[in-house]
Amino acid sequence: MFVLALVAGIILGFIFKGNLKNLSNIKFRGIYLIIFGFIIEFIINILITRGIITSSFFTYLADGIMYVLIFIFVFINKENHYILIMGIGFLLNAIAIFTNGGIMPVSEYAIKITGITNNISKAGLYGIMDGQTHFKILCDFIPVKLIGSFVVSIGDVISAIGMMFLVITSMKKEYN
After folding, report:
1. pLDDT per residue over 32-51, tens digit each?
2. Using CA atoms, how far apart are residues 93 and 105, in angstroms rounded to an integer?
3. Is 90 in contact with 71 (CB distance < 8 Å)?
Protein backbone atom coordinates (compact mmCIF):
# COMPACT_ATOMS: atom_id res chain seq x y z
CA MET A 1 0.00 0.00 0.00
CA PHE A 2 2.75 2.45 0.93
CA VAL A 3 4.69 1.74 -2.26
CA LEU A 4 1.55 2.59 -4.24
CA ALA A 5 1.10 5.77 -2.18
CA LEU A 6 4.71 6.75 -2.83
CA VAL A 7 4.40 6.12 -6.57
CA ALA A 8 1.05 7.97 -6.73
CA GLY A 9 2.58 10.87 -4.80
CA ILE A 10 5.49 11.09 -7.24
CA ILE A 11 3.20 10.92 -10.28
CA LEU A 12 0.92 13.61 -8.83
CA GLY A 13 3.98 15.63 -7.87
CA PHE A 14 5.05 15.64 -11.52
CA ILE A 15 1.52 16.49 -12.67
CA PHE A 16 1.55 19.50 -10.32
CA LYS A 17 4.91 20.56 -11.77
CA GLY A 18 7.04 19.37 -8.88
CA ASN A 19 10.65 18.27 -9.08
CA LEU A 20 11.78 14.83 -7.92
CA LYS A 21 15.16 16.17 -6.75
CA ASN A 22 13.34 18.28 -4.12
CA LEU A 23 12.57 15.05 -2.22
CA SER A 24 16.26 14.82 -1.28
CA ASN A 25 15.85 18.04 0.71
CA ILE A 26 13.17 16.75 3.10
CA LYS A 27 14.43 17.07 6.66
CA PHE A 28 13.28 14.59 9.28
CA ARG A 29 14.57 14.27 12.79
CA GLY A 30 15.05 10.77 14.13
CA ILE A 31 14.62 8.97 10.82
CA TYR A 32 16.47 6.04 12.38
CA LEU A 33 13.48 5.49 14.69
CA ILE A 34 11.12 4.74 11.83
CA ILE A 35 13.76 2.62 10.09
CA PHE A 36 14.32 0.51 13.23
CA GLY A 37 10.56 0.21 13.72
CA PHE A 38 10.00 -1.15 10.23
CA ILE A 39 13.05 -3.43 10.50
CA ILE A 40 11.46 -4.97 13.62
CA GLU A 41 8.20 -5.52 11.72
CA PHE A 42 10.05 -7.01 8.74
CA ILE A 43 12.03 -9.46 10.92
CA ILE A 44 8.95 -10.54 12.89
CA ASN A 45 7.01 -11.16 9.67
CA ILE A 46 9.85 -13.27 8.25
CA LEU A 47 10.11 -15.29 11.47
CA ILE A 48 6.36 -15.94 11.51
CA THR A 49 6.13 -16.71 7.79
CA ARG A 50 8.94 -19.27 8.07
CA GLY A 51 7.32 -20.85 11.12
CA ILE A 52 10.23 -20.02 13.42
CA ILE A 53 7.92 -18.21 15.84
CA THR A 54 4.17 -17.78 16.25
CA SER A 55 2.13 -14.82 17.40
CA SER A 56 2.83 -14.63 21.11
CA PHE A 57 3.85 -12.28 23.89
CA PHE A 58 7.17 -11.81 22.05
CA THR A 59 5.46 -10.59 18.87
CA TYR A 60 3.09 -8.44 20.94
CA LEU A 61 6.11 -6.86 22.65
CA ALA A 62 7.94 -6.41 19.33
CA ASP A 63 4.87 -4.67 17.90
CA GLY A 64 4.76 -2.47 20.99
CA ILE A 65 8.40 -1.45 20.53
CA MET A 66 7.82 -0.82 16.81
CA TYR A 67 4.85 1.46 17.47
CA VAL A 68 6.63 3.33 20.27
CA LEU A 69 9.50 4.07 17.87
CA ILE A 70 7.07 5.21 15.17
CA PHE A 71 5.15 7.44 17.59
CA ILE A 72 8.37 9.02 18.89
CA PHE A 73 9.31 9.77 15.29
CA VAL A 74 5.89 11.33 14.66
CA PHE A 75 6.12 13.37 17.86
CA ILE A 76 9.56 14.83 17.14
CA ASN A 77 8.43 15.71 13.59
CA LYS A 78 5.00 16.99 14.64
CA GLU A 79 5.50 20.34 12.90
CA ASN A 80 5.02 18.48 9.61
CA HIS A 81 1.26 18.08 9.23
CA TYR A 82 1.61 15.20 6.79
CA ILE A 83 3.71 13.21 9.27
CA LEU A 84 0.93 13.82 11.81
CA ILE A 85 -1.63 12.48 9.35
CA MET A 86 0.50 9.39 8.84
CA GLY A 87 0.81 9.08 12.62
CA ILE A 88 -2.99 9.13 12.99
CA GLY A 89 -3.19 6.25 10.54
CA PHE A 90 -0.54 4.32 12.47
CA LEU A 91 -2.42 5.00 15.72
CA LEU A 92 -5.65 3.60 14.26
CA ASN A 93 -3.77 0.45 13.19
CA ALA A 94 -2.18 0.15 16.64
CA ILE A 95 -5.61 0.32 18.29
CA ALA A 96 -6.87 -2.50 16.07
CA ILE A 97 -3.79 -4.62 16.67
CA PHE A 98 -3.41 -4.18 20.42
CA THR A 99 -7.11 -4.60 21.21
CA ASN A 100 -7.12 -7.87 19.27
CA GLY A 101 -4.28 -9.67 20.98
CA GLY A 102 -1.41 -8.40 18.85
CA ILE A 103 -2.80 -9.37 15.45
CA MET A 104 -4.53 -7.35 12.74
CA PRO A 105 -7.89 -8.95 12.01
CA VAL A 106 -8.76 -9.22 8.31
CA SER A 107 -12.22 -9.46 6.77
CA GLU A 108 -12.87 -12.87 5.23
CA TYR A 109 -15.16 -11.19 2.68
CA ALA A 110 -12.36 -8.81 1.58
CA ILE A 111 -9.97 -11.76 1.31
CA LYS A 112 -12.40 -13.51 -1.05
CA ILE A 113 -12.88 -10.36 -3.17
CA THR A 114 -9.13 -9.91 -3.61
CA GLY A 115 -8.56 -13.58 -4.32
CA ILE A 116 -5.92 -13.97 -1.65
CA THR A 117 -5.75 -17.73 -1.23
CA ASN A 118 -2.88 -18.26 1.18
CA ASN A 119 -3.53 -18.94 4.86
CA ILE A 120 -3.84 -15.42 6.26
CA SER A 121 -2.49 -16.42 9.67
CA LYS A 122 0.75 -17.57 8.03
CA ALA A 123 1.15 -14.31 6.10
CA GLY A 124 2.29 -12.40 9.17
CA LEU A 125 0.61 -10.97 12.21
CA TYR A 126 -2.93 -11.36 10.87
CA GLY A 127 -6.04 -13.33 11.72
CA ILE A 128 -9.56 -13.70 10.36
CA MET A 129 -12.10 -11.22 11.73
CA ASP A 130 -14.78 -12.92 13.85
CA GLY A 131 -17.42 -12.18 16.47
CA GLN A 132 -14.75 -11.55 19.10
CA THR A 133 -12.94 -8.90 17.03
CA HIS A 134 -12.74 -5.46 18.61
CA PHE A 135 -12.90 -2.20 16.59
CA LYS A 136 -13.78 -3.95 13.33
CA ILE A 137 -13.98 -0.56 11.61
CA LEU A 138 -10.22 -0.16 12.24
CA CYS A 139 -9.27 -3.63 10.98
CA ASP A 140 -8.27 -4.68 7.46
CA PHE A 141 -11.55 -4.78 5.57
CA ILE A 142 -10.99 -2.69 2.41
CA PRO A 143 -10.18 -4.90 -0.61
CA VAL A 144 -7.69 -3.41 -3.07
CA LYS A 145 -7.03 -4.89 -6.51
CA LEU A 146 -4.56 -2.67 -8.30
CA ILE A 147 -0.98 -3.72 -8.83
CA GLY A 148 -1.47 -6.85 -6.80
CA SER A 149 -4.27 -7.69 -4.39
CA PHE A 150 -4.38 -6.90 -0.72
CA VAL A 151 -6.68 -5.84 2.09
CA VAL A 152 -6.13 -2.57 3.96
CA SER A 153 -7.53 -0.67 6.92
CA ILE A 154 -8.74 2.88 7.37
CA GLY A 155 -5.45 3.51 9.19
CA ASP A 156 -3.51 2.32 6.13
CA VAL A 157 -5.53 4.63 3.89
CA ILE A 158 -4.99 7.64 6.16
CA SER A 159 -1.25 6.93 6.41
CA ALA A 160 -1.03 6.53 2.63
CA ILE A 161 -2.83 9.85 2.09
CA GLY A 162 -0.38 11.55 4.48
CA MET A 163 2.54 10.03 2.56
CA MET A 164 1.15 11.11 -0.81
CA PHE A 165 0.66 14.70 0.32
CA LEU A 166 4.12 14.74 1.92
CA VAL A 167 5.66 13.67 -1.40
CA ILE A 168 3.55 16.01 -3.53
CA THR A 169 4.18 19.11 -1.40
CA SER A 170 7.87 18.28 -0.99
CA MET A 171 8.29 17.94 -4.75
CA LYS A 172 6.65 21.32 -5.23
CA LYS A 173 8.64 23.04 -2.49
CA GLU A 174 11.55 25.19 -3.63
CA TYR A 175 14.61 24.82 -1.43
CA ASN A 176 17.50 27.27 -1.26
Report:
1. 999 999 899 889 888 887 87
2. 10
3. yes
